[in-house]
Every structure is written in structure tokens, then in C-alpha cells.
Write a structure and sequence with these properties.
About 40% of the residues lie in helices and about 25% in strands. The protein is an alpha/beta fold. It has a single domain (about 1-90, about 160-250), classed as Rossmann fold (3-Layer(aba) Sandwich). It has a 6-stranded mixed beta sheet with strand order 6-7-8-3-9-10, sandwiched between helices. Strands 2-1-4-5 form a 4-stranded antiparallel beta sheet, with helices on one face. A hairpin with a 2-residue loop joins strand 1 (about 1-10) and strand 2. The longest helix has 16 residues, at about 170-185.
């Protein structure tokens, strides 16, 4: 079980996260939805300690991290537990797809070259990119780059996979292949905390949905509860606006 307690973050006088609490069970796929600029991505970045919060505890099984003051040794351990998939891929430009996946295994997990290579190859196969192992990012499409980034994150075997709007930087025709990769990882039992504006995907894949607004969780529940019978007026308003948008055919 994973617990997040009293997570708060502000920029100057702007409160971005306001005392957020969240419990995540093993195998949960928790989707965070809500308007832009309401702290969704910041929440993920605080958990991975890319942002320093004003307060917050992150508890994984028996280990507790004080996110406000993580020591250097703890930071390495924290990033073994939480692998991040970014909007913009963040692959190493001068490393091949295979080398990108091997990097964390070699540097963070201190694996030998052959062991890291075997795991990297297996993960590339898992995302359907075995034939692209020796390709550099510049020779991969945006969807392929994001699938490599997901493979890199999964290779670390994190307790919690963090996905920050993983399709937002992609052309529409490439979104489906990345969402299919995430669905496959969900079926394999990976625990995920996902920020996404792809509502049909959230509805079909998430085990729990959280609506975040102005740094606070206004409502949480199953996809059916949130999408079919939201209790909070702000959630109803948001979903009403979303349903007016065009639905790409790969979500139907």
C-alpha cells in the first residue's frame, strides 16, 4: 500500500497543492483529472521529488519519506520506487532506444551490462519496438519515443509508475499506440498514478478517478461514480464541457 499525506506546495503566494491525502493500493490505476493549472502535474513531480513541497509524507509499505527534506541517499531510493513518464519523452538524444532503457538500470540499480541489456530488450519487446533497439530518438516518431520512455520506466520495476499527460505532446494519430501500451502495462498489474485529459481512456482503464481543482481533491471514486453520477457541481460542470469535445474514433 502507498500513502500520501499532507502534501502541500506553493509558488510564492500561490497555493498549488493544499494538504492532499491519497491512498493507493497495489495494482490501482488512479487517474487525476481536472482543469489545467490545478496542481495535477505538480503532484506527480513532488512525489518523484522533481519539485520540493512545503510538506508531505510518502509512505510505501514500511518506508516513509519526508518529501520536504529528502536526503541524497533517500532520493535515489525514492526514484527507484517512483518512475516518471513525462509529456516530452526526455530521452537521451545521443543514446539508442536500448541504451536509454539500460541507463537507469546501470546507474541507479548498479546492474551489470548484460543483465541490464536483457531487461531492456525484454521491455522493448513488450512495447512492440524490438526492431528499433538501435535507433536514436531523432529517428523515432513521437509515439515510438514515448513507448521507449514507458519501457524505460517499467524496466525499473517501480512500486508506482507516474505518467504526466503522456499523450499531450503527440500528434493525434500517434496517441492510440501510446494508450495501448499503457493499457497493456495496466493489465500486467503495474500500479499507476496518471494525469490525463483523455477522458474515454480514463473511463475505460482507471480503477479510481480523482478530480483535482485549486490544489484540492474535490471528489474521488470509481470511473462510473465520477462520470455517471458526480456529486460536486464543479465536477459536473467540467465533465459537461469535456463531453462537448470531439471523440477520436480510437476511444469508441
Amino acid at each position: 500500500m502507498i500513502e500520501i499525506r499532507h502534501l502541500s506546495k506553493k509558488y510564492k503566494n500561490n497555493i498549488v497543492l493544499d494538504n492532499v491525502d491519497l491512498t493507493i493500493q497495489k495494482g490501482d490505476i488512479i487517474a487525476i483529472i481536472g482543469p489545467s493549472g490545478t496542481g495535477k502535474s505538480t503532484l506527480l513531480r513532488c512525489l518523484n521529488r522533481l519539485e520540493q513541497p512545503e510538506s508531505g509524507e510518502f509512505r510505501v509499505n514500511e518506508k516513509t519519506f519526508d518529501l520536504q527534506k529528502v536526503r541524497r541517499g533517500e532520493l535515489i531510493e525514492l526514484r527507484k520506487i517512483t518512475s516518471m513518464v513525462f509529456q516530452g519523452f526526455h530521452l537521451f538524444a545521443k543514446k539508442t532506444a536500448l541504451q536509454n532503457i539500460m541507463e537507469g538500470l546501470r546507474i541507479v540499480k548498479k546492474m551489470g551490462k548484460e543483465e541490464a541489456k536483457a531487461i531492456a530488450k525484454a521491455q522493448l519487446a513488450n512495447v512492440g519496438l524490438s526492431n528499433h533497439a538501435n535507433h536514436y530518438p531523432i529517428h523515432l516518431s513521437g509515439g515510438q519515443q514515448q513507448r521507449v520512455a514507458i519501457a524505460r520506466a517499467l524496466a525499473m520495476e517501480p512500486a508506482l509508475l507516474l505518467l504526466d499527460e503522456p499523450t499531450s505532446a503527440l500528434d493525434p494519430e500517434l496517441v492510440g499506440e501510446v494508450l495501448d501500451t499503457i493499457k497493456r502495462a495496466a493489465r500486467e498489474g503495474h500500479t499507476m498514478l496518471l494525469v490525463s485529459h483523455e477522458m474515454h481512456f480514463v473511463r475505460n482503464v482507471a480503477t479510481k478517478v480523482i478530480f483535482l481543482d485549486k490544489g484540492r481533491i474535490l471528489e474521488s471514486g470509481t470511473p462510473e461514480e465520477i462520470f455517471q453520477n458526480p456529486k460536486h457541481e464543479r465536477v459536473r460542470e467540467f465533465l459537461a464541457n469535456i463531453t462537448q469535445m470531439h471523440t477520436p474514433e480510437y476511444f469508441i
